[in-house]
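Your task:
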Amino acid sequence: KEAEFISETLFSGDIRELNSQQIEVAFSHVPSVEIDNESLSLVDLLVNTEIEPSKRQAREDIENGAIYIDGIRTDDVNSMINPKEHFGGDFIVIRRGKKKYFLVRINK
C-alpha cells in the first residue's frame, strides 16, 4: 500500500502529501546533495548544489518557470529558502524542467 501511495502521489505531481520517509524512498534514485540548515536564496541554493552551473543560468531558469521546489513552480528570483520549512527540515525536492529531479538533504 505504501508503494502504491507513493507512486500515485508522484504521478499526480503533488509530492507535498508525502512525509520525510516517503520522500527518501521515492527519490532514492535521483542525484542528491547536502546543505546546511541555513536560509539562503533560491539562486544560491541552485548554484551551491550544482543543480545550475551559474547564477545567470539559475535566474534564467527560475524566471522561465523551469524550477519547482517541493512540487511548486517558483518564478521569483529573489525568493529565500528556509530548509526548516521543507519535509520536516529533512529534505527539499527540486525539479528542473520536466524530468530532472534532485534531492537536497539538510544537515541538522
Summary: Strands lie at 32-35, 40-41, 67-69, 72-73, 80-81, 91-96, 100-106. Residues 2-12 form the longest helix (11 residues). The radius of gyration is 13 Å. The chain has a mean pLDDT of 92.
